[in-house]
């Protein structure tokens, strides 16, 4: 009986969370622009979506910024995680706590802080204006902590003498890092990269505060379109973003499951 109640509760909760999204996805295939009348199945709004130059530009900005920020943040975060792992226990806990602050910090605080930093750099150092570069730097900055959090558990699971053993066998520090440490933590690196890409595609608040005139990603474009009224193309665009994020999260979850199974097999 209790198990049945739990199942019903979970079903109602999932329905409450995903019913609005399911309605939006259904309306994206509605021939009629009305939200109260079903005019038949159609790909009209998807065709209009890909024919719109503003949406195409926003999509290009979103994908390039997500890919570049994920790549750069993965490199920086991985190197930082390896360095943090070499610190003493007390120092390591302090540094990890500082690293975790941006994760728990409200996004609006991060967005406003980065905007003020960029405006200061622009006015004092004359570094151009808010735009693509500042948007990319902002995405890199909030992605790095997530990469560190993804890589650190793999580093904790490694034998602490592995690095020294590789150097004792004739490897240079860079060779020991590239050929011994990095292959062992590769699953965490890939998970961090996928997570960084997903967060970058999904972000709105930080992007809104750190971009300039003429440069927008999909989330900002949807916001500006919604202010002028709910265009059915918003449903199509939101559906594509939702499916993209779901696929990426599925890949991350599947990789984590495989990682846990491999670690369990190694222990047994």
Question: What can you tell me about this protein's structure?
Answer:
The protein is mainly alpha-helical and 268 residues long. The chain folds into two domains: 1-42 and 233-256, no CATH class; 54-224, Orthogonal Bundle (MetI-like fold), CATH 1.10.3720. The protein is 80% helix and 0% strand. The chain has twelve helices and no strands.
Which helices and strands, and how do they pair?
Blueprint (H helix, E strand, L loop, with lengths): L1 H26 L16 H8 L1 H33 L3 H16 L2 H19 L6 H25 L5 H7 L4 H12 L1 H17 L2 H6 L7 H10 L4 H36 L1
Helix pairs in contact: 1-12, 2-12, 3-6, 3-9, 4-6, 6-9, 7-8, 9-12
What's the architecture of the largest domain, going by CATH? Orthogonal Bundle
CATH H level of the largest domain: which superfamily?
MetI-like
Termini separation comes to 37 Å
Q: Major sheet, described briefly?
A: none
Q: Helix share of residues?
A: over 70%
Number of domains: 2
Q: What series of H and E elements makes up the topology?
A: HHHHHHHHHHHH
Q: From the helix content, strand content and strand pairing, which structural class follows? A: mainly alpha
CATH names the topology of the largest domain as MetI-like fold
Number of strands: 0
CATH class of the largest domain: Mainly Alpha
- Round the Cα radius of gyration to an integer and report it: 23 Å
- Rounded mean pLDDT score: 83
Strand content range: under 5%
Name the shape in a single word: globular
The low-confidence parts are none
Instruction: Supply the number of helical segments.
Output: 12
């Amino acid at each position: 009986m209790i198990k049945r109640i739990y199942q019903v509760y979970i079903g109602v909760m999932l329905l409450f969370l995903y019913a609005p999204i399911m309605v939006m996805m259904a309306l994206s295939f509605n021939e009629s622009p009305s939200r109260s009348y079903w005019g038949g199945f159609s790909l009209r709004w998807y065709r209009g979506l890909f024919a719109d130059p503003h949406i195409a530009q926003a999509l290009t900005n979103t994908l390039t910024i997500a890919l570049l920020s994920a790549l750069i943040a993965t490199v920086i975060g991985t190197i930082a995680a390896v360095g943090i792992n070499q610190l003493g226990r007390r120092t390591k806990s302090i540094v990890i706590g500082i690293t975790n602050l941006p994760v728990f910090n409200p996004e609006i605080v991060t967005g406003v802080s980065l905007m003020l930093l960029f405006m200061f750099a622009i006015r004092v150092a004359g570094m151009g204006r808010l735009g693509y570069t500042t948007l990319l730097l902002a995405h890199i900055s909030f992605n790095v902590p997530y990469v560190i959090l993804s890589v650190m558990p793999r580093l904790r699971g490694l034998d602490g003498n592995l690095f020294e053993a590789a150097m004792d066998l004739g490897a240079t520090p860079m060779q020991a890092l590239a050929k011994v440490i990095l292959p062992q933590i590769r699953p965490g690196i890939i998970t961090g990269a996928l997570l960084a890409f997903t967060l970058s595609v999904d972000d709105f608040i930080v992007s809104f505060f750190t971009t300039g005139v003429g440069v927008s990603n999909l989330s900002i474009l949807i916001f500006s379109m919604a202010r002028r009224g709910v265009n059915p193309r918003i449903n199509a665009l939101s559906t594509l973003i939702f499916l993209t994020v779901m696929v990426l999260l599925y890949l991350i979850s599947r990789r984590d499951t495989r990682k846990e199974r491999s670690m369990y097999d190694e222990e047994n």
